[in-house]
TrEMBL record:
GO terms for molecular function: ATP binding; UDP-N-acetylmuramoyl-tripeptide-D-alanyl-D-alanine ligase activity. Residues 335-455 form the Mur ligase C-terminal domain. The gene is murF. Residues 25-92 form the Mur ligase N-terminal catalytic domain. One of its GO terms (biological process) is peptidoglycan biosynthetic process. It is an enzyme of class 6 (ligase). InterPro entries: Mur-like_cat_sf (IPR036565), Mur_ligase_C (IPR004101), Mur_ligase_C_dom_sf (IPR036615), Mur_ligase_cen (IPR013221), Mur_ligase_N (IPR000713), MurCDEF_CellWall_CoF430Synth (IPR051046), MurE/MurF_N (IPR035911), UDP-N-AcMur_synth (IPR005863). One of its GO terms (cellular component) is cytoplasm. Pathway: Cell wall biogenesis; peptidoglycan biosynthesis. The keyword Oxidoreductase does not apply. Keywords: ATP-binding, Cell cycle, Cell division, Cell shape, Cell wall biogenesis/degradation, Cytoplasm, Ligase, Nucleotide-binding, Peptidoglycan synthesis. The lineage of its organism: Bacteria, Pseudomonadati, Pseudomonadota, Alphaproteobacteria, Rhodobacterales. This is UDP-N-acetylmuramoyl-tripeptide--D-alanyl-D-alanine ligase. Gene3D superfamilies: Mur ligase, C-terminal domain, Mur-like, catalytic domain, MurE/MurF, N-terminal domain.
Amino acid sequence: MTILWTAAEAAAATGGRATTDWAATGVSIDTRSLAAGDIFVALTDQRDGHDFVAQALEKGAAAALVSRVPEGVASDAPLLIVEDVLPALEALGRAARARSRAKVIGVTGSVGKTGTKEMLRAMLEVQGHVHAAERSFNNHWGVPLTLARLPKDADFAVIEIGMNAPGEISPLSQMARPHAAIITTVAAVHIENFENIQGIAREKAAILDGLEPGGAAILNRDIETYPILNRRARRLGARIVSFGAAGRPTYRLRDAQMTEDSTQVEAMIARQPLLFKIAAPGLHLALNALSALAAVEAVGGDVAQAALALGQWHAPDGRGARWTLSLGSQGVDGTVLLIDDAFNANPTSMEAALGVLAAIAPKNGVGRVQKGRRIAFLTDMLELGSEAEAAHEGIADLPVLKGVDRIHCAGPLMQALHNSLPHDKRGEWHPSAEKLASRAGRLLDAGDVVLVKGSKGSKASRIVDAMLKLGQATRADIPRAFEDGEG
């Protein structure tokens, strides 16, 4: 494998002291996923990473980045000793970025960051060597970790940048120094930490602070806070590229049609028509795709080739991934289509996910109930501040609910939705996701299409896990079992 860091390089980058001469092929913060040859970074967060250094070295870590020699570790073990581990990881990330020849794209936004990052990965993999985090590493340690892993020979890098509170995005952007920066959208997410949505917009606009000279600011023209983003971009001298469906953005969405397994998109790019297919259903994906195409063009990629790659793109786990569950021994009890959107939730993404559910036809005549159903299992949307109860109640008024047959809820906030639902759509309510998960097997039937959606902190993933254990589960990127279903 290619050497990522030598002891001398890492010591020079961090100002630390290497105890031995070593060479590493990767960087890890978790012994559970550590590969032989990685530098193990002993971060102190919920637990002290120094407690796991010995285990990491036993698993084949090339070295450990530490602020002291941990108990039970020999003084001549391969270590990089620094004053403070997190700033050292940040320094390692900055050094990797400084030596890289890659064109860097930064992605932020209230909704759609990870999906857009994965679209960019698919678009750029056919055009060069792409580096992007495998998971949603977008916070104060995730961004420097992603940068520290940046291979010297990468052609492109996609860096996802998130936030929970004011002041978090700017330093991460200045670390990543993107050549193009996408702001997918601005919505009332993490609103409890901000005075209003305008404050969220200003924080999202801070991704532009790190833009390389002449870099592109790729902005959503459709949102009400666009003027805030536009002003920040102009003040910083960025090249503004807009996308959207209204007005005359650079990348304009003319039409999007959703089928059960894809989204057909018609767009105009600087007065030139472009037709392409996304291999996943969701009208919201069309705008994300346009922002990604704009970024590809901004870093010198081939837009037509990128658009073709979307025909093979599939939603990541927890963000719209689809599974076919074969129930009973060897699937004799039929199948259920599961949409796993359990990683996070807010009012904007909740409406989009329910729209996807409503568009997929269940299969009739195969289960106990005879008529296949569209069923949602929803857990609390968190960090909505004083608007939380109203936001949950408001789901009951969404037009897309006309296409949903039954909604089961979990959590104290989702009780507001449960009480607001019409009787024919009201399913069960339970105080926790774990309790609703325990009921999953009794609430599903062959032929059903099922959505699980909720904030990570409300443990919607527990419901997905319970469902995946009901039978044999296979990824259903093209759900053939439902192709001839009836609506």
